[in-house]
Every structure is written in C-alpha cells, then in structure tokens.
C-alpha cells in the first residue's frame, strides 16, 4: 500500500465507492482558496490512471502538490513520467506556478525514480503513519520550471483561460 490514504484497502466495491466519493468531493469543493485538479490519464484510448495537483492559498504561494495513480499493468512504460511531466508543464506554463511539490514513501523506489526523471529534487524527509502502528519515512520533493525535464511534443491545452478566471489568476474577483 504505497499511498498515504489507504486507497487499496477493502473490497473492490468499497474501493470503487471511496474513489467516486473522493472525486465528487474534489469537484464540489473546488474554489480559488483551495483546489484539486484531478485529471484522467488515457493511453492508446484506455483509461490507465490519474494525475492530480492540490493546493491551498495558490494566489499567494503559487505552489501545488502532485499525486498520481497508474494501473500496475501500465508501470515501466514511461506513462507515469509523461503524465507527471504534462501536469507540471501545465502548472508552470498556464497557471504561473513557482514550484510544484510531491512526496513518496522511501520504500517506493519506482515513484521516486519517476520524480527524479521529471526533475524533482529532494526537499527533506517526514515521518508519517501509514497503517495502524506503522511509521514510514516520506521523501519530500520540489520541482521548479528550471529543473523540469519536459516531454515532447509540446503540451496542447484547451480551457486554461477559463480555469485561470475561475481561480482568480487573471486579476478578477471570483
């Protein structure tokens, strides 16, 4: 269970319900003060995972935290790297991010390898509870526009202006 939240614990029905409730809540609670942008990742027409960025006080901090999930059968094909590169490029190029943060448990070398490929740098270690009675070390990471290893081809984006308006990035009160 490589996640801070126990997404993979429970029956398939419980996991499915918890996932839907989480995504519904993220959409319902989105505001300029605190938001999470949840994206669907498709590869060859198939949904293979999701990539997100969450933040509070973005108009002040210009910082968001990435999170992702990629189906096991799609690991090792470069998809995880591409989906993180795309979201980070979007944040820097379209939402004026100063930095993007992430984190992974130190016993999750695959996630840490993706972060290194994208250009994240280590930014301290935290101690967290993962399961009842289990402490785990969590490697914190930070990325800037200068350290981002960009994917090719260039990212094509639609709807960024409307999102910027909603988030208050264009100088209008929302």
Task: Write up what this structure looks like.
This protein has 174 residues and is α+β, with helices and mostly antiparallel strands. It has one domain: Gcn5-related N-acetyltransferase (GNAT) (Aminopeptidase). Helix content is 32%, strand content 33%. It contains five helices and six strands; from the N terminus they run αββαβαβαββα. It has helices at residues 12-28, 58-61, 79-94, 109-118, 160-167, and strands at 34-43, 46-56, 63-70, 99-105, 121-131, 134-143. Strands 1-2-3-4-6-5 form a six-stranded mixed sheet, with helices on both faces. α3 (79-94) links the parallel β3 and β4 (99-105). α3 (79-94) packs across α4 (109-118). The longest helix has 17 residues, at 12-28. The termini are far apart. The model has no long low-confidence stretch (mean pLDDT 90).
Summarize the structure.
The chain is α+β, with helices and mostly antiparallel strands and 174 residues long. Helix content is 32%, strand content 33%.
Topology, element by element:
Layout: H1 12-28, E1 34-43, E2 46-56, H2 58-61, E3 63-70, H3 79-94, E4 99-105, H4 109-118, E5 121-131, E6 134-143, H5 160-167
Parallel strand pairs: 3-4
Antiparallel strand pairs: 1-2, 2-3, 4-6, 5-6
């Amino acid at each position: 269970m490589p996640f801070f939240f126990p997404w993979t614990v429970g029956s398939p029905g419980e996991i499915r319900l918890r996932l839907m409730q989480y995504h519904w809540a993220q959409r319902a609670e989105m505001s300029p003060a605190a938001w999470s942008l949840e994206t669907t990742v498709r590869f060859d027409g198939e949904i293979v995972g999701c990539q997100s960025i969450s933040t509070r006080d973005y108009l002040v901090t210009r910082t968001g935290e990435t999170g992702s999930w990629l189906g096991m059968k799609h690991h090792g094909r470069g998809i995880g790297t591409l989906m993180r590169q795309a979201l980070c490029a979007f944040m820097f190029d379209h939402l004026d991010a100063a930095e993007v943060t992430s984190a992974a448990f130190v016993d999750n070398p695959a996630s840490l390898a993706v972060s290194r490929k994208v250009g994240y740098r280590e930014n301290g270690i935290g101690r967290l509870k993962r399961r009842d009675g289990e402490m785990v070390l969590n490697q914190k990471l930070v990325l800037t526009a200068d350290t981002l290893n960009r994917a090719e081809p260039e990212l094509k984006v639609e709807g960024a202006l409307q999102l910027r308006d909603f988030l208050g990035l264009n100088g209008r009160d929302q």
